[in-house]
Amino acid sequence: MKRKWISLLALLFVVGAGIGGIKIYQKAATEHQYGIIPKEAKKVDEYGRVQYTISVINEKGQTTFQTFTTIKQLKEGTVIDLFVRGNEVRKYDIITKNELPQRVKSVWPTKERKEEEK
Protein backbone atom coordinates (compact mmCIF):
# COMPACT_ATOMS: atom_id res chain seq x y z
CA MET A 1 0.00 0.00 0.00
CA LYS A 2 2.81 2.41 0.87
CA ARG A 3 4.47 1.71 -2.48
CA LYS A 4 1.28 2.70 -4.35
CA TRP A 5 1.14 6.06 -2.53
CA ILE A 6 4.78 6.76 -3.31
CA SER A 7 4.20 5.87 -6.98
CA LEU A 8 1.12 8.09 -7.11
CA LEU A 9 2.96 11.04 -5.53
CA ALA A 10 5.89 10.57 -7.92
CA LEU A 11 3.51 10.55 -10.89
CA LEU A 12 1.78 13.71 -9.67
CA PHE A 13 5.16 15.41 -9.22
CA VAL A 14 6.29 14.49 -12.76
CA VAL A 15 3.01 15.69 -14.31
CA GLY A 16 3.13 18.94 -12.30
CA ALA A 17 6.75 19.59 -13.28
CA GLY A 18 5.89 19.00 -16.94
CA ILE A 19 2.98 21.42 -16.89
CA GLY A 20 5.05 24.02 -15.04
CA GLY A 21 7.88 23.64 -17.55
CA ILE A 22 5.55 24.17 -20.49
CA LYS A 23 4.13 27.35 -18.93
CA ILE A 24 7.63 28.71 -18.26
CA TYR A 25 8.67 27.97 -21.86
CA GLN A 26 5.58 29.66 -23.30
CA LYS A 27 6.15 32.78 -21.22
CA ALA A 28 9.84 32.95 -22.20
CA ALA A 29 9.13 32.37 -25.91
CA THR A 30 6.35 34.99 -26.12
CA GLU A 31 7.18 38.51 -27.30
CA HIS A 32 4.92 41.48 -26.64
CA GLN A 33 4.30 43.80 -29.57
CA TYR A 34 2.28 47.01 -29.25
CA GLY A 35 0.28 48.87 -31.87
CA ILE A 36 -2.75 51.01 -32.64
CA ILE A 37 -5.83 49.76 -34.48
CA PRO A 38 -6.16 51.64 -37.79
CA LYS A 39 -9.31 52.67 -39.64
CA GLU A 40 -8.69 50.13 -42.39
CA ALA A 41 -9.65 46.51 -41.77
CA LYS A 42 -10.29 43.59 -44.06
CA LYS A 43 -13.31 41.33 -43.60
CA VAL A 44 -12.08 37.73 -43.69
CA ASP A 45 -15.25 35.65 -43.83
CA GLU A 46 -19.04 35.61 -43.53
CA TYR A 47 -18.78 35.17 -39.73
CA GLY A 48 -17.54 38.73 -39.32
CA ARG A 49 -13.90 38.02 -38.53
CA VAL A 50 -11.64 40.98 -39.27
CA GLN A 51 -7.99 41.00 -40.29
CA TYR A 52 -5.61 43.82 -39.42
CA THR A 53 -2.07 44.51 -40.58
CA ILE A 54 -0.56 47.11 -38.28
CA SER A 55 2.78 48.67 -37.47
CA VAL A 56 3.98 47.35 -34.10
CA ILE A 57 6.76 48.11 -31.63
CA ASN A 58 8.31 45.39 -29.47
CA GLU A 59 9.69 45.79 -25.95
CA LYS A 60 13.18 46.51 -27.36
CA GLY A 61 11.84 49.48 -29.33
CA GLN A 62 12.12 47.75 -32.73
CA THR A 63 9.32 48.32 -35.24
CA THR A 64 7.81 45.88 -37.73
CA PHE A 65 4.41 44.91 -39.13
CA GLN A 66 2.09 42.24 -37.76
CA THR A 67 -1.05 40.68 -39.24
CA PHE A 68 -3.72 39.16 -36.99
CA THR A 69 -7.41 38.29 -37.04
CA THR A 70 -10.13 39.16 -34.52
CA ILE A 71 -13.69 37.93 -34.17
CA LYS A 72 -15.04 41.48 -34.25
CA GLN A 73 -14.00 44.88 -35.51
CA LEU A 74 -12.06 46.89 -32.95
CA LYS A 75 -12.46 50.62 -32.44
CA GLU A 76 -10.06 52.79 -34.41
CA GLY A 77 -7.24 54.15 -32.22
CA THR A 78 -7.40 51.29 -29.69
CA VAL A 79 -3.99 50.44 -28.22
CA ILE A 80 -3.30 46.74 -28.39
CA ASP A 81 -0.76 44.35 -26.82
CA LEU A 82 -0.09 41.36 -29.10
CA PHE A 83 1.32 38.15 -27.63
CA VAL A 84 3.54 36.82 -30.44
CA ARG A 85 5.30 33.47 -30.50
CA GLY A 86 7.14 32.34 -33.61
CA ASN A 87 5.86 35.39 -35.57
CA GLU A 88 2.28 34.23 -34.94
CA VAL A 89 -0.15 36.25 -32.83
CA ARG A 90 -1.41 33.88 -30.12
CA LYS A 91 -3.68 36.38 -28.35
CA TYR A 92 -4.13 40.09 -27.77
CA ASP A 93 -5.15 42.44 -24.98
CA ILE A 94 -6.64 45.90 -25.28
CA ILE A 95 -4.63 48.27 -23.07
CA THR A 96 -4.25 51.99 -22.41
CA LYS A 97 -1.30 54.10 -23.48
CA ASN A 98 -0.33 54.40 -19.80
CA GLU A 99 0.19 50.62 -19.66
CA LEU A 100 2.85 50.67 -22.38
CA PRO A 101 6.40 49.82 -21.25
CA GLN A 102 8.61 52.91 -20.90
CA ARG A 103 10.89 51.90 -23.77
CA VAL A 104 7.90 51.54 -26.09
CA LYS A 105 6.54 54.95 -25.02
CA SER A 106 9.84 56.57 -25.97
CA VAL A 107 9.53 55.41 -29.60
CA TRP A 108 5.74 55.51 -29.86
CA PRO A 109 4.65 57.14 -33.14
CA THR A 110 5.55 60.84 -33.07
CA LYS A 111 2.10 61.89 -34.35
CA GLU A 112 0.56 60.23 -31.28
CA ARG A 113 3.06 61.87 -28.93
CA LYS A 114 2.41 65.35 -30.38
CA GLU A 115 -1.35 64.92 -29.93
CA GLU A 116 -0.87 63.82 -26.30
CA GLU A 117 1.26 66.90 -25.49
CA LYS A 118 -1.52 69.30 -26.55
UniProtKB/TrEMBL annotation:
Pfam families on file: DUF1093 (PF06486)
Domain of life: Bacteria
Protein name according to UniProt: DUF1093 domain-containing protein
